[in-house]
Design a protein that fits this description.
There is one protein chain. This protein has 123 residues and is mainly alpha-helical. The protein contains six helices and no strands. Helix 1 packs across helix 5, helix 4 packs antiparallel against helix 5 and helix 4 crosses helix 6. The model has no long low-confidence stretch (mean pLDDT 90).
Length: 123
């Protein structure tokens, strides 16, 4: 395992709380923007999270990869959907996106592991 993505996401909780406390108006506006952007309209929320994950790869943001990989799993994204998204991120971001796409796959798999384990028990 290259990185523990769930741990990375959890470690950002406290610094994000501090940022919210230090810049409450800005962070309220950012949260409002996020809610508006993620609202299901012509695109469903799962598709929007996959787009965000692809952008996170293209701009090389580790924390963004962690949060959007987790959100994509929670929205029911499949690994095949993830892989197509990574294909687009690689297309748009070239070589560096290949490396970050590999990290995004690892993050997705780590967040999906509990879901897969639960599904295996049900079968």
């Amino acid at each position: 395992m290259h990185m523990d993505w769930p741990r990375l996401a959890a470690e950002f909780s406290q610094p994000l709380k501090e940022l919210r406390a230090g810049t409450p108006e800005t962070m309220r506006a950012f949260s409002s923007l996020a809610r508006a952007a993620l609202e299901a309209k012509a695109l469903d929320t799962k598709t929007k999270e996959l787009i965000a994950l692809g952008i996170a790869v293209a701009v090389r943001c580790d924390a963004c990869i962690a949060f959007h990989a987790e959100a994509a799993v929670k929205q029911g994204a499949s690994r095949d959907e993830l892989m197509e998204t990574m294909g687009m991120a690689i297309y748009m971001g070239a070589g560096p996106s290949v490396m970050y796409a590999a990290q995004a796959v690892e993050a997705f798999d780590q967040f999906a592991a509990p879901t897969r384990a639960a599904e295996a028990v049900v079968k």
